[in-house]
Amino acid sequence: MKRSALFFGTIIVLLGVVLLGINLGVVDHRVWRYFWPLVLVLLGVWFLLGPYLSKGTLESVERSVPMMNDTEAEIHFNYGAGRMVIGSGAKPQELLSGSFTGGITEELHRNNGKAFLKINTPSDFIFPGVWTAGQHGFNWNVNLTNEIPLQLRIHSGACEARLDLTDLKITELTIETGASSTDVKLPQNAGFTRVVVKSGAAEVKLHIPQGVAASIRESSGLSGINVNTSRFPQNGHTYQSVDYNTAANKVEISYEGGVGSVDIN
To answer: Above 90 in pLDDT, residue 134?
Structure first.
């Protein structure tokens, strides 16, 4: 039985007992003022004790998605918690390959030469994270094709993410992350790349290769932002390379952050 199913099954049984007690007249209806605080306490205990109740590891699943005359692709990664590594290295005519601890679910369709692929953590883990997947957490190691332009959409929770996109043709990169550590090496020869980063209490590092120009706009709230102004001079909330308009390879970065930090160099 999945641990999340056990937890919610217990809550449903408790709710049923309370309703039955009220109907029988043995429980006062004012019990509701205590019921939901109790549920929150149980939920907190479940999170705290989860790692100690889960000592096993999950099986690693190998997956490969072939290309089918694709000229471009949009790939979504919906990830909970653990460690995710994304880079180049897919074989010829292979859109994606990799190993996925705990398994994945996926959605794939194609339209007019464009592939749309979504990779998700298993749907039966209601709280995907380190303790639901055992002490090692979900661990994804993903190889992407460098043969066609890619749009990447990454939605992650409390994780460590390492993205080496140096050799990939990334035209768009969107990262939405919570309490995490995210390290990204941006493309070297992709032409134009648009990057959007939205983060919570996160540490984000973006590495822009030498020879690639950048325009950076930030709306960081309480975040601390550190930009290499010797490469990207500052003008208000914008940082931009002096040769941005004429550069053959360039990135446009938009950053919105909460309580965290971002480092761009």
So the answer is: no
CA dihedral 39, 45, 47, 51 (to 10 degrees): -150
3-state secondary structure at position 1: coil
**Structural tokens at position 158:** 């409390």
- CA dist., res. 34 & res. 130, Å (int): 30
Average pLDDT, integer, range 244-265: 89
The dihedrals phi and psi of 205, each to the nearest 5 degrees, come to -125, 125
State the DSSP string of 145-166.
Answer: -SSS-EEEEEEESSEEEEEE-T
Q: Two tokens at 69?
A: 């005359």
Rounded Cα distance, 73 and 145, in Å: 10
Q: Which two tokens stand for residue 152?
A: 């990447």
Query: Between the CA of residue 178 and those of 36, 46, 117, 157, 218, what are the distances in Å?
Result: 26, 21, 23, 5, 17
Residue 108: CB atoms within 10 A of its CB come to 15
pLDDT at 137: 59
Q: Which of 164, 60, 52 is nearest to 104 (CA)?
A: 60
184 three-class SS: strand
The domains of the chain are located at 3-53, 62-264
